[in-house]
Amino acid sequence: MSKEDLMTKISELYDKYENDEIIFNKLKHHITHELDIILINTKKILISRENRKQLLLEGYTKFINEFINKNRYFYCSTTEIFFKYDNIHYNIVKEDDIIHEILSSLNHHDNDHPVEYYEQQLLPWKFKIKTSTIKQLKEISVFVSIPESSTVQYVISLFLDTLFETKNQVKYFLTILGDIILKKSNNNIYLISPSVKPLLRLLENQGGKYLGHIPITNTFRYKYHDHNYNDCRLINIKNTKINMEEIIGINDFTPIIDIFVVCCHYSNRYDTADKYLNECLDNKLNEYALYLKNNNQSAIISSFINLKIQTSTGSIISMKNMLYLCKCYLDENNISGVIFTANLKLLLKEQLDYTECDDSFYGYTSLGLPLVSNFVKFWDLTIEENIDEYFLEIDEICIIFKQWLGGKSSLDIKDTEILNLIKHFYPDIVIENNKYIYGISCITWSKKDELKTFLNSHDNAYELTSYELYVEYTKKNNKKTTLTVNKSYFDLFMAECKGEPLKPPINNKFIL
């Protein structure tokens, strides 16, 4: 309303009541005496209200900021769960407990603030402060929390030595998980040992309870399936057998939350796992993780040929032996399975002189061939099918093979090499846990015959327990040979003997 409008309104009132003495005097009195006082008082009230509001707002802002800074609360909007960080671990906390702490702080003054601060600035807006504090806490995502060094080192220690050999390997793995948790879009496929599958499932399942479903397992692959090499990243796992309790407590969710927070911290810090590789300056980690991205199948086979195959006039390597040597090379470099056998054959034929008629490569040799040829010969001459034999162990076959070699035993023979040879050349053989081989026996060492001979040479064998007999057996056997039947096999043998009640005949000899 303009000044002219106000003057017009007063003029209208004047004209209206000009002839009404009582009303006219009342109008004149209000305008000349009361209006100014009313306006002055109203102004004072407005100023007082504004000052009080400003005072309350200052207390409101001060309290919320101090409470948030003092108490490190975080929130996950997906699961609507609060977490409290004690500078070591992230723990779940109920919203009611936070509200109770807020109201307790509002109702009791401390030594840092005067009583007036609580009575004049906080109590009048107590419930508004409580509501606003909770609202602001819900805006602080747990995924952007920056953990203290103690938490970071705790999480790294969970994986170091149990899964990985170096801290950089652990950080790379955690950054990958962080990229997945924060849903950073990329086409990367991470190839990892199948032994990690239970751990990834645990992280996905337990993490889903507290932080919402995060499809961790979808990004990892446990076997190469003709993926584009450019999208593949390799993760080197130290152990093939993982003790879940050793890494994370079975029913303890605290490490899960700590792990997820640290993963997000690394992902936020380095932006992506690929950028972490560039910044960590770990050439060994970088080269292995990006091995497939930086190489194609032809380059891998060329590297194998340069390092493992030598030219030799008159020498021959069969396709089967060449494939074995190539697979051993891939195993040594921890990249087994990244080239299918059909492609291996084609690449080898392209880069080496190959003769189709006898499926062999002429003019080549390899330092790994003596072991291969000798083992195949050993197996064919000494190993036979025997469904009555309980089992042979890989280390037993390794010892028997070394004994069979005699003067050639200077060859470097490892249990893993023997296992790979059996799997490659005799794929139908049943092997359990990469240790026990079923359905075969060795003609140079019959385990059952050895135990029968021992029992029949022991006068009071039928009077001793299985354990006592095994002690006697090991004492006697260790003096004669390096091969000794282990306790589990011995127990199986004794159980079979007891299945047909053993009675000592003449001269206390067992009938077996």
The secondary-structure class comes to mainly alpha
Distance between the termini: 121 Å
Please give the order of strands in the largest beta sheet.
1-2-3
Strand coverage percent:
5-15%
> Rounded to an integer, what's the Rg over CA atoms?
41 Å
Number of strands: 14
- Biggest pleated sheet: 3 strands, antiparallel
Low-confidence stretches: 500-512
Query: Mean pLDDT, nearest integer?
Result: 84
User: How many domains make up the 3D coordinates?
Assistant: 5
* Number of DSSP helical runs: 22
Q: Topology, pairings included?
A:
Elements lengths: L2 H15 L3 H50 L2 E4 L4 E5 L4 E4 L1 H13 L7 H8 L3 H12 L11 H11 L7 H15 L7 E3 L5 H15 L8 E2 L10 E3 L9 H4 L6 H17 L2 H8 L2 H7 L1 H4 L2 H12 L1 E9 H14 L8 H11 L2 E2 L4 E6 L3 H14 E3 L6 E2 H12 L9 H11 L4 E3 L3 E3 L1 E3 L4 H11 L8 H12 L9 H13 L13
Parallel strand pairs: 4-5, 4-6
Antiparallel strand pairs: 1-2, 2-3, 7-9, 8-9, 10-14, 11-13, 12-13
Helix pairs in contact: 2-4, 2-5, 3-5, 7-10, 7-11, 14-15, 14-16
